[in-house]
Structures are given as C-alpha cells and as structure tokens.
Amino acid sequence: MKHLFCRRTEFLEAARWYESQRRNLGHEFIAEIDRCVALAAAQPQVYASVYKGVRCITAERFPYSVYFRVEVRRIVVLAVFHGSRDPSNWQSRA
C-alpha cells in the first residue's frame, strides 16, 4: 500500500532539531518514522482508530506518533506528532 504525507514540514523540522542535538540523530529519527509508516502501510487495520477513523502507530525510539487515515489503496499520514503536544492540533486535520 502506498502512502502520502501531509504536513511533511513539521516532520522535517523535528528531524532538523534532532540533528542539531547530535550528529546523525536526525537521520535516525527519519528512519524510525519511515519504519512506522511502512508498518502502517503494510497492515493498517492492525492499528487502532483513535479519532474519527484516524489510526495511530507510536515510534519506539522517539516520543512521536504517526497519525494516518486509510484510503482505498494508500494511507494518508496526517501528522507526525510529539506525545507532549495538544492532540487538538492534529485532530483538526481529520
């Protein structure tokens, strides 16, 4: 199943911040989020619906979750969201 990223800018800003903290940490963050997206795309039904049909997978190494909606032949990533942020920020995208 394919995927489409909405709000990729937020995700890349987080990667830049991690890279500024330690060399290659930004790349590790991107790899972890890519892993989450690949898992979600492979078996989207495994992940629980958390809000209006939006599903969520939580990253293992970073305090982020990937929120996505399932469409016919793809998933649409609505947000890559830090766990401490107010969820209403991503819920408005649903």
Notes on the structure:
By secondary structure, this protein is an alpha+beta fold. The protein has one domain: RelE-like (YaeB-like fold, 2-Layer Sandwich), CATH 3.30.2310.20. Helix content is 38%, strand content 30%. A hairpin with a 2-residue loop joins β2 and β3. The radius of gyration is 13 Å and the shape is globular. This is Recombinase. Keywords: Toxin-antitoxin system. It comes from Candidatus Thiodictyon syntrophicum. It holds the Pfam family ParE_toxin.
How would the blueprint of this fold be written?
Elements: E1 2-5, H1 8-21, H2 25-42, E2 49-51, E3 54-58, E4 64-70, E5 74-82, H3 88-91
Parallel strand pairs: 1-5
Antiparallel strand pairs: 2-3, 3-4, 4-5
Helix pairs in contact: 1-2
Descriptive labels:
RelE/ParE_toxin, 3 helices, 94 residues, YaeB-like fold, single chain, toxin-antitoxin system, RelE/ParE_toxin_dom_sf, 5 strands, Recombinase, five-stranded mixed sheet, alpha+beta, 30% strand
User: CATH superfamily assignment?
Assistant: RelE-like
User: How many angstroms separate the termini?
Assistant: 20 Å
Query: Count of helices?
Result: 3
> Would you identify the CATH architecture?
2-Layer Sandwich
Keywords: Toxin-antitoxin system
Pfam families: ParE_toxin
Protein name: Recombinase
Organism: Candidatus Thiodictyon syntrophicum
